[in-house]
Specification:
Shape: globular
Largest sheet: 8 strands, mixed
Strand content: 15-25%
Mean pLDDT: 78
Radius of gyration: 29 Å
Low-confidence stretches: 1-48, 55-63, 534-538
Number of helices: 20
Length: 695
């Protein structure tokens, strides 16, 4: 792809610093795509529907636009037109602060920019506002229009321009992997690059859909889900064998040909031969029953029931659609919802609702076209894409996706038959999902308004940060905060802090809270100073960077410690609240404390109290999880030497008996006591070492 950059006016050649991915939130942890994942240990956060976007940018056609500002924008675009190529390419509109306002593509860049430069052209108010904010244009030339379309989608996802449709909450989708690098293949959930030998089936819409399917497949085909290391260390069958979710190949409860047959049946089922597999199992059940082998017949019956459970969970299973993705869009109340269904091997592998960020003036067709390009920016497309609305450049989209996939991709809007029925079903789901989300948002708005009345806040908070810390006798101390706003929890902005202060008294909760607050707000103040912006500036996704309300877990002492930090930093604009647990830690009897006010006691059934409890409990869940990850890492690095009374001999005996440190951690006191050389007292110490609850 030949690329040529043309930078116009006022230093447009500079990369817009506010648009670089990863620099807006310096404290955000990296989260690379996971590799192979044990389905029993995976959280299902990606099942949560995306938040509704903020509608900050008005699209009223009568919005005033200063003539002088509009003239400056036209002049900047006219300068770009003079040097713009007549070939395909991508252009970026830049603001005075070098923020990217809009990314567009064109078959003829000069012609497209000329349409913006003419002051007499009748343009929508949204486009006029964009022109008025533009001071420079950057252009990247491409060889073809299809390359321009793919580049445009990539840049929109990276830069998140204000005037484009933005696909948010775009996570990778999980697959089911049946491994091919071991004589006894394993079934597991997989994310990321498909480099491990084996067969991949997917994508699935959510982790929950994969986990439910894997559980049912284990019941139906008895394929192992344990790791290879765990498999090799077994001397007796594990619990999954006892509850009939594994055939027990680790201890040769089943021979190699028998296990291979189970794996083949599972692959056939996932490959679309579900009816043939069910007929085979039904015949085997009848045969076993006829030979009076009722235990075997019952096993086949349970396997058939598990397969039926998978298909009942899948809802619709089309007869004429082998491989396709469905996209249906519904607009209401100024918001858009795109419902996506995945069909592979003639089976429905789940659906998911998206709420792209777009101004009200965008038509459903415009939103869907931009959404589609961004959706497949980092995902392989199927052979068929079915849409609820006809997009303007369907042929160009199909061509671009075909180049990306390496095979022909068809993009169409079905008009009749089963495909039309599937689109109608998807549209119903989109409408219902948007209705639920709008109702949830309205409820959240009422709760935030209730906070104003109860706490005497100046306005409903748009960003609430809730702080907590966790440790065990001062070790592995972690502080964290969670974020909530008008659309509920904002999980991509949760943060954790490893406590670093030297000389910190173990278990000093006040000192830990002070460190976390200082690090958090000193960084915010520095960022605001560097950017020379007001603290209330919103981030790209519409959630303010600065909180309106800070909630901490604790009583008056914790509140005073936090207030000292706020006073030192001059944070008068942030409201502060502490939540003390009730007697015997009873939920519903909490006491609320605010600076220079009497303690607040709410009725146990008060919705505002319940809302505050939910916020506090979410912060506690997040910080406990962060603490446990840190502690497990330390335990694995230190090994068993850290346990009092466990020397090299007992360590060898434990590892020989259980195989891995993870299995020692999972073992009960009774199981630990069965290890040669481990007394009842030593077993208790080992168990308590792994299971002590953090504070």
């Amino acid at each position: 792809m030949a690329r040529e950059s043309i930078n116009q006016a006022n230093g447009a050649g500079k990369e817009p610093t506010s648009s670089r991915p990863g620099e807006r939130q310096p404290e955000q942890a990296q989260n690379p795509a996971a590799g192979d994942i044990d389905p029993a240990t995976v959280t299902v956060d990606d099942e949560d529907e995306a938040r509704l976007p903020e509608t900050e940018v008005s699209d009223e056609s009568n919005e005033a636009i200063a003539e002088g500002t509009l003239a400056v924008g036209h002049a900047a675009i006219e300068n770009a037109v003079k040097l713009a190529p007549t070939s395909p390419g991508v252009y970026r509109m830049l603001s005075a602060a070098h923020d990217v306002l809009y990314v567009g593509k064109a078959k003829n860049v000069r012609k497209r920019l000329s349409s913006y430069a003419r002051a007499s052209s009748p343009l929508p108010a949204r486009i006029l506002r964009m022109i008025a904010a533009t001071v420079a244009v950057e252009i990247i030339s491409t060889s073809t229009e299809t390359e321009a379309l793919l580049l445009e989608a990539n840049l929109i996802k990276q830069l998140r321009p204000r005037f484009n449709v933005q696909l948010r909450d775009d996570k990778s989708f999980p697959y089911i992997l049946i491994t091919g690098d071991h004589w006894a293949p394993q079934i597991l959930k997989h994310r990321g690059a498909q480099t491990r030998p084996g067969q991949y089936f997917g994508p699935f819409a959510s982790a929950g859909a994969v986990n439910r399917t894997i559980t049912a497949l284990q019941r139906a085909f008895l394929i192992r889900s344990c790791t290879d290391a765990f498999f090799e260390s077994r001397t007796r069958p594990c619990l999954l064998y006892q509850i009939k979710r594994c055939a027990g190949p680790c201890t040769r409860e089943i021979d190699f040909p028998g296990y291979s047959e189970l794996v083949r049946e599972a692959k056939d089922f996932l490959s679309g031969k579900s009816q043939a597999v069910k007929q085979l199992l039904a015949a085997e059940m009848e045969k076993a029953s006829g030979e009076l082998e009722f235990e075997s017949a019952a096993l086949y019956r349970d396997r058939l029931a598990a397969l039926s459970a998978i298909q009942s969970q899948q809802g619709i299973n089309p007869r004429t659609v082998e491989e396709a993705d469905l996209f249906a869009i519904h607009q209401e109340g100024g918001y858009s919802c795109v419902e996506v269904f995945f069909f592979r091997t003639g089976q429905n592998w789940g659906n998911r609702a998206y709420f792209p960020k777009a101004e009200k003036s965008f038509t459903p067709e415009e939103v869907l076209a931009s959404f589609l390009a961004q959706f497949y920016d980092d995902k392989p497309p199927p052979k068929l894409i079915l849409l609820s609305h006809a997009i303007e450049e369907a042929e160009l989209m199909a061509s671009a996706l075909s180049i990306k996939a390496g095979f022909k991709v068809e993009v169409s809007v079905p008009q009749r038959g089963e495909k039309k029925e599937l689109i109608t079903h998807a549209l119903t789901n989109a409408k219902e999902a948007l209705g639920r989300k709008l109702a949830d948002t309205a409820t959240q708005s009422r709760l935030l308004t209730g906070l104003v009345t109860t706490l005497g806040l100046p306005h409903p908070p748009r960003r609430i940060e809730v702080y907590d810390n966790s440790h065990i006798q001062g070790t592995n101390a972690v502080g964290a905060f969670i974020v909530a706003g008008p659309d509920g929890f904002v999980k991509n902005q949760y943060r954790k802090f490893n406590i670093k202060s030297e000389g910190l008294t173990p278990g000093d909760d006040y000192a830990m809270m002070r460190e976390v607050l200082q690090r958090r707000f000193k960084r915010l103040l520095a960022a605001a100073s560097d950017a020379d912006t007001a603290p209330a500036k919103a981030e790209d996704d519409g959630v303010p960077q600065w909180p309106d309300l800070v909630i901490i877990d604790g009583g008056r002492g914790q509140l005073n410690a936090a207030k000292d930090i706020f006073d030192q930093l001059g944070l008068a604009q942030v409201s502060l609240l502490s939540v003390a647990k009730g007697p015997d830690r009873d939920a519903g009897r909490e006491t609320l404390f605010m600076p220079d006010r009497e303690a607040i006691k709410l009725e146990p059934r008060d919705p505002v109290l319940y809302f505050i409890q939910r916020l506090r409990d979410e912060a506690h869940r997040f910080v406990i999880g962060s603490h446990r990850k840190l502690r497990k890492k330390d335990i694995r690095e230190a090994g068993l030497q850290e346990i009092p009374g466990i020397g090299p001999s007992r360590k060898r005996a434990l590892l020989h008996h259980f195989g891995t440190l993870k299995e020692i951690e999972r073992a009960s006191i009774a199981d630990l006591g069965k290890v040669p050389g481990v007394s009842a007292e030593s077993a208790r110490k080992i168990f308590e070492f792994f299971h002590t609850q953090p504070g």
